[in-house]
Amino acid sequence: MAAQPSPTPSPTLASDDPYRFDDLRALYINCTLKPSPQQSHTQGLIDKSRAIMDERGVATDVVRAVDHDLAPGVYPDMTEHGFTTDAWPALYEQVMAADILVLAGPIWLGDNSSVTKQVVERLYSCSGLLNSKGQYAYYGRVGGCLITGNEDGVKHCAMNVLYSLQHLGYTIPPQADAGWIGPAGPGPSYLDPGSGGPENDFTNRNTTFMTWNLMHMAAMLKRAEGIPPHGNQRSEWDAGCRLDAPNPDYR
């Protein structure tokens, strides 16, 4: 299934509004286990965050990962390693076109879904690639996560996702996660009638704060042209420049 582009931005904000972000693009990857067009409770929470970004001029896209034939593996293109097809190279282009990446998914057995883990694995497969400054490719981009479920595990899942993203090079702003689990399960899911999920003030507050912090941080990085390329260039390290670190003694 193709990515879902954002609707036409609202014209209600003045062009001189200091909190418009028309130069930013965000990608939400929905890691539900359900293929389209099945209802995704995770998508319900994504929609809350996405509406804020759309209103503020961010161009947003949503991809449901399970709709794509992503091969398992830790190389950028797994068709070069025995698989017949691999949709990751095309999805990676969307990832690299986005200033903001939000991974969103459900909790199963207290942990992230298998799809979430596969997406993180494929992000990792490209983490050794470099940008034009010789830094790792994901430098200068911002990451966050949304978690849904009807059992404990929101913070555990968020910790895993946010650690993974920062380790790969993403910048993680304050309050970069939000989630909803309702009463410790089994119980209603986010969009089930009477669940209280869409009206939950705690979840709505955290989702709002996360969304604004992602936009603020992405805008700061974009205006600054990313993370300064000093002391963090893999290309320079490989060339022998140790950037104030002791040079290795090869004797």
TrEMBL record:
It comes from Streptomyces sp. R35. Residues 29-175 form the NADPH-dependent FMN reductase-like domain. The lineage of its organism: Bacteria, Bacillati, Actinomycetota, Actinomycetes, Kitasatosporales. This is Flavodoxin family protein. Residues 226-251 are annotated as: Disordered. Pfam families: FMN_red (PF03358). It comes from the Bacteria. GO terms for molecular function: oxidoreductase activity.
